[in-house]
Specification:
The protein is an alpha/beta fold. Helix content is 30%, strand content 28%. The N terminus is likely disordered.
């Protein structure tokens, strides 16, 4: 696969920043927005190396330049100057792999064979995500600036994957590598000859990719599915739900392809009702339950589902007098920009208000937010306020965040927050 010039051939763009942006970069923030730039040496192309200077012309940092994105620079390295070459990419990827050594062992044992190997900004590789699904790897780009550097990234990934436990040595360390991209990056990547869902290595899959999570069987559409095919960040929270589900009646709202549903059924739930707006997602819930039908707990769990607007369905269930011992509410992001935050908090309060009448006395509410712009304390305060206003205050069990393969390296990196709480 080829995409533009090699890192050694890329031009450098000298970039001058506002004083506030200088402070942010020195403090470790990985993004420089277009409004923070006071001048450049030339326009540059996606993937050029942007050298950042302070107002005294001293080196601050170096990053990837993307003239088509509001995030104009993704910072790779700060402090003293250093070359951005094949050795740099291998070093950064190696550090990310080392942080996940425990998960690599679980994958070799067949317990959990899907995890995030590189978590973008939080692994000092901003805009680059690499997820592993057994022997299929998915590289997701949030900026076209990564395209010229993909050959070096793939070289480093191949070498590191070959050394993982269970790789067996020799031969290809993967069956395929799939390219995925964000909507913002897609146009720029197409212009460089790179389409979302393209194969960077190996042949296209003939079917969904099978993998295991906490010993349970799943399958992901890595070519056309959301993000990279499965929301890996909720893996630990799904295991927590499974541990709470014994004998319970469970409602899984915004169920997507059924991660929480399957864990609840495997944990001994008496019944699970899954709700999602996508008929395709609800069909995948049934398929993932069927993949685990050899487990007696899953086989005996009464599974039902509904397709439609979650707010309307929850209100309808309450009107019918439905009651559950465990309600999971895991919506998509409600705040794509900062101005959306008040509306998002209102939506979270409404979801809590709708969930409370559905909970039996002593039932457990599990409510999440993946909106990075909504601070954790604001979310938890909104949930508690809604519960108190509904006359059913919550007693917290725990507050949780991402699974360990989704480390937090800067403030906006802490996007996922979940509250486990019991109602009276």
């Amino acid at each position: 696969m080829t995409a533009g010039a090699s890192p050694r051939e890329r031009r450098r763009v000298s970039v001058r920043l506002t004083r506030d942006a200088q402070r942010q970069v020195r403090g470790g923030h990985p993004w420089v927005f277009d409004a923070s730039i006071t001048g450049t040496s030339h326009d540059g192309e996606p993937g050029d190396l942007a050298v950042l200077f302070d107002d005294k012309r001293r080196f601050l940092a170096i990053g990837l330049w993307d003239p088509s994105s509001p995030i104009r620079v993704r910072v790779l390295h700060r402090g003293r100057p250093r070359p951005i070459d094949d050795g740099f990419w291998h070093e950064q990827l190696g550090a990310a792999f080392a942080r996940r050594a425990g998960l690599a062992e679980l994958a070799a044992q067949g317990t959990t064979t899907a995890y995030r190997a590189v978590h973008g900004e939080n692994d000092d590789l901003p805009g680059l995500v690499i997820d592993r699904y057994d022997r299929t790897w998915v590289v997701r780009l949030d900026t076209a600036a990564w395209a010229p550097h993909l050959p070096a990234v793939l070289d480093g990934l191949q070498a590191l994957a070959a050394d993982l436990p269970g790789a067996g040595g020799g031969g290809a360390p993967w069956e395929r590598v799939v390219l995925r991209s964000s909507r913002q990056a897609r146009t720029g990547l197409v212009a460089m000859g790179l389409a979302d869902g393209a194969m960077l290595a190996g042949d296209p899959p003939e079917d969904l990719i099978a993998f295991r999570e906490n010993g349970l069987a799943f399958a992901a559409d890595v070519v056309r599915g959301q993000k990279t095919g499965h929301f890996l960040d909720q893996r630990d929270n799904r295991a927590r739900v499974g541990a709470l589900a014994g004998g319970a009646r469970v409602l899984d709202v915004f169920s997507c392809t059924g991660g929480f549903t399957v864990h609840a059924a495997a944990g001994g739930a008496a019944a699970v009702h899954s709700v999602d707006a996508s008929p395709h997602a609800v069909a995948e819930v049934a398929a993932n339950l069927d993949r685990n039908h050899d487990r007696p707990a899953v086989a005996t769990c009464r599974a039902t589902a509904a397709v439609g607007d979650a707010f309307d369905i929850m209100a309808g269930l309450a009107g019918e007098g439905a009651r559950y011992d465990l309600v999971v509410v895991d919506p998509p992001s409600f705040a794509s920009k900062q101005a959306d935050v008040p509306r998002a908090l209102g939506a979270y309060r409404r979801l809590t208000t709708l969930a409370l009448p559905l909970l039996a006395p002593g039932g457990v509410l599990v409510q999440s937010s993946c909106s990075s712009r909504v601070p954790a304390d604001d979310l938890f305060d909104a949930v508690h306020q809604a519960a108190a206003g509904g006359g059913r205050p919550l007693h917290e069990i725990e507050r949780t965040s991402h699974a360990d393969d989704h480390p937090v390296g800067f403030r906006q990196g802490a996007y996922l927050k979940t509250l486990f709480a019991r109602v009276g």
